[in-house]
Amino acid sequence: MSMPVQSVPADPAAPRRAARPLRPRAPALPPLDALDRTHRQMMEMLGALSRLIDRLDDAGADEANRRAARLACQFFDTTARQHHADEEALIFPPLVRRADKALLQAVRRLQQDHGWLEEDWLAISPQLQAVAQGYSWYDVDELRHAVGVFTALYHEHIGLEESLAYPAARAQLQAEEAARCQRVDAGNAGPQP
Predict the structure, then answer these.
(1) Which one of 1, 69, 87, 100 is separated from 124 by 20 to 30 angstroms, measured CA to CA?
(2) H or E stretch covering 4
(3) Is the dihedral of CA 81, 84, 86, 88 positive or negative?
């Protein structure tokens, strides 16, 4: 039972506080920081997916396992796919612009990984959907193997992105922004008296 909230009268002797000015909303996380955060979420979700597979042997499609399967399906159907699309749009182009052979090779591998991760997910998803809906036609051994392959590829993929691609993209984007600012500054510098 909640108690009614009573307002406390303001102290008439206290100085009046000026109204806060309206201001724009705080900006969203910078894109690379948001992508890093999603990597952490992926690692958590991969761990939850592995734990789910282990519990299926004993508990089957009980309510907890159905809920875990729904969460995994929702995450990999939406968040993970959008994350890969964001990387393709935000991370890979600046790396390609650098025209560094090692980076180009890494970008090609990461793009290939995105395709393989999607293929792996398309193989896993129907069985997890079955668990999520309470059906028993999933094959735990097949799921265990497929999730192991999926998880291993994600770990390698994220490792390459965080050790090579993201730092290089950050450096490239910062260099491009600095060059843009210099051009703007040079354009704004009129004739000096």
Answers:
(1) 87
(2) none
(3) negative
pLDDT digits (tens, 9 = 90+) for 92-134: 988 888 878 999 999 999 999 999 999 999 999 999 999 999 9
**Among residues 82, 44, 68, which one has the least CA distance to residue 129?**
68
129-135 own/partner pairs: CB under 8 Å, 24+ apart: 129/69, 129/73, 130/61, 131/52, 131/56, 131/61, 131/65, 131/66, 131/69, 132/66, 132/69, 132/70, 132/73, 133/66, 134/61, 134/66, 135/61
Residue 76 CB partners (closer than 8 Å, separation 6+): 45, 121, 125
Show contacts of 119-126: CB within 8 Å, 24+ apart. 120/146, 120/149, 120/150, 120/153, 121/76, 121/77, 121/80, 121/150, 124/150, 125/73, 125/76, 125/77
Nearest 10 degrees: CA dihedral of 122, 126, 131, 135?
Answer: -170
Residue 71: pLDDT over 90? yes
pTM for this prediction: 0.77
The class level of CATH for 31-176 reads mainly alpha
